[in-house]
Write a structure and sequence with these properties.
Two copies of one chain form a homodimer. With 220 residues, chain A is of the alpha/beta class. Chain A contains eight helices and eleven strands. In chain A, the strands form three sheets. Chain A has a seven-stranded mixed sheet, with helices on both faces. The first copy, chain A, has a two-stranded antiparallel sheet with strand order 3-4. Chain A has a two-stranded parallel ribbon with strand order 8-9. In chain A, helix 7 links the parallel strand 8 and strand 9.
């Protein structure tokens, strides 16, 4: 049975994982009968955003504890993740990727990546295992690997050229499309980088999951 | 174009809406090209549960603000909801239904229902419009209507006979099945009342949505 690690960054697109992307990823993996384990780092969120107003709230929340809402409690600290035990990794999007896993949200191409997250991405690519990266997560993958490999991804339109500034190559793609870096086995789809219909988000994510799974068990 | 109101009770199954049920409901409605508006009451949650440990957290959260995480900010206070403007209502499950919309979680068949929620359910049934009720939400519908109509629903197995104690009639159903009260146009599916695969949850919810939509525009 194929196994996949899904890595969450909180619960809510303004300060954590994009909830719908996370659920649609879990659904596509379950439908494909993949054995899924959900991980998140045991760290404070960068901030807490009132998702109704968009304002910063005077609260402190923990990425692992909030991610557990999406995981229904069945979640493991990211520090325990051994990439050798999984066939594939998935990163749903949301600002958690750009605020908690990195500071892309504030520093753009001058960003720093959380060392644990960076190591996990690097080890996965070194092990020739595929990664599915959704929404803004492809920028995290490109940034994590910038000193080692040039990665081709989509984050939708990328009008500001973020991916190229990070040392990667960007391909424009619609919400229902994926971009595949066959050399490094990175599959990306832009999801809620556009405010598209959830039906289209689901189509893109399902394609991303299926393409990642097609790499599983293929010759390294 | 058919329109539906989706009513959320927070963000996380232990103290609010069951996230996956809410997302899958939104997805099934969007796929059916239904015009959706999301509502939640502007009230304090009964409590905040750490979804990793199951323990009560020393925090205060608001149902409307937390529901906005699932709604991506596009949410309206429940007090504004005019049932005459919609063709159907949907209640995803989660403990928010049994803690915030009612006290079913603590008082069982002796529960009280939030007056606003009760009025909305009652007015919808009086207007001969259909309601989709997911997971524990069918118990809320039965309780809200107990003085007026006996409703037939499923909450899965109901080993303690909650629905019958509330004055309704229970039918056992699997996760992928629905139960239809044709007289009152109440369609129920048990979803995460069982810890089933998300694929099965999605099948049940999609059936529920499709059956509710089949009532829209039918003769009152």
């Amino acid at each position: 049975m194929v196994s996949a690690a899904v890595i969450l960054s909180g619960c809510g697109h303004f300060d954590g994982s994009e909830i719908r992307e996370a659920v649609l990823t879990l659904w596509a993996l379950d439908e494909a009968e993949v054995n899924v384990e959900i991980f998140a780092p045991d760290m404070e969120q960068k901030n807490v955003i009132n998702h109704r107003t968009g304002e910063i709230a005077d609260e402190v929340r923990n990425v692992l504890i909030e991610s557990a809402r999406i995981a229904r409690g069945n979640i493991t600290p990211l520090s325990v993740l051994d990439v050798q035990k999984f066939d594939a990794l998935f990163f749903p999007g949301g600002f958690g990727v750009a605020k908690n896993f990195s500071d892309i949200a504030t520093h753009g191409s001058y960003c720093a990546i959380d060392p644990l997250v960076k190591r996990i991405i690097y080890e996965t690519v070194l092990a020739k295992k595929p990664i599915g990266a959704i929404c803004i997560a492809p920028a995290l993958i490109v940034a994590a690997l910038r000193d080692y490999f040039p990665i081709t991804v989509t984050i939708g339109d990328d009008p500001e050229g973020l991916i190229s500034k990070l040392g990667g190559k960007h391909q424009v793609a619609t919400t229902t499309e994926i971009v595949v870096d066959t050399t490094h086995k990175i599959v990306s789809t832009s999801a809620y980088m556009r405010n598209d219909r959830i039906t289209n988000i689901a189509i893109g994510i399902k394609k991303c999951v299926q393409k990642v799974l097609s790499f599983c068990g293929s010759p390294a």
